[in-house]
Write a structure and sequence with these properties.
Strand content: 25-35%
Shape: globular
Distance between the termini: 44 Å
Order of helices and strands: EHEEHEHEEHEHEHEEHEHEE
CATH topology of the largest domain: Rossmann fold
Strand order of the largest sheet: 9-8-7-10-11-13-12
Number of domains: 2
CATH architecture of the largest domain: 3-Layer(aba) Sandwich
Number of helices: 8
Radius of gyration: 20 Å
Helix content: 10-25%
CATH class of the largest domain: Alpha Beta
Length: about 270
Amino acid sequence: MKRVVIDLRPKESYAEGHIEGAFNFPWESIRADACGLPPRDVALIAICDGQIDLDIVEAYLNRFHFASLEVRRLSKNDELVCELPKGTCWSPNPFLSEVITEIEMKNGGPSFALDVGSGTGRDMIYLASRGWSVVGIENRLRLIEQGVALSKKHKVDCRTLYIHCELKKFFPVKFEGPDLLHVCRFLHRSSLEMLLKLPRRGGFLVYSHFLDGCQKTEVGHPSSIDGFFLRGELRQILFGAGYTVIIERETTLPDKRPLVHIFAQRTR
């Protein structure tokens, strides 16, 4: 199990010295920065100073259901460094990170990507860090605000643009625009046909979404055909929309919900 350390002390205290590899999430802004926390399947260690109530911290972080959680104060025995950790403590869509190098090779390098249902923008930031210009479309303003802050934190705000709109009504991007369309855990069947027309001919699609069977897990959702694909359904839809499927894969989340991942190219 991966171990991740976060340091909840103020930025000034963190800069003076922190446990090697620890990521700084000042407690006073933790709610605004929560979108940058690590995935739920990690062993999380939260480091606090004497000003923070450990019980309150534990109660808050337990809401995220990490695989394990340890909340403690910084000890005199802890070895401290000033060097910042590399990368991020969160991860983008694993399937996107798996296929992005091939996409860039086929595309001639990073260019323009559209992320539909972008949430807090983690996948946008990942693409922007590789040199892509990324537009994210999201209907929840709170998530957009978190994404904007996260983009600034990772210094890619010059290559990311967030658009707030009702995704189930329209897409504010002209057809045949992006070189890459990324969709992760978003499905609105009535607008799916229009969505698949957005990439240019020769452009690429990376789509990850829930499969039938989620309703039988402890989580229980999505619970209807409106929220998940049947097995083989997305492949057939893409074939009819003029796509060639390059990779199709099924995985399972730690909470047992099944996902389908498809990497495809629009060929007509």
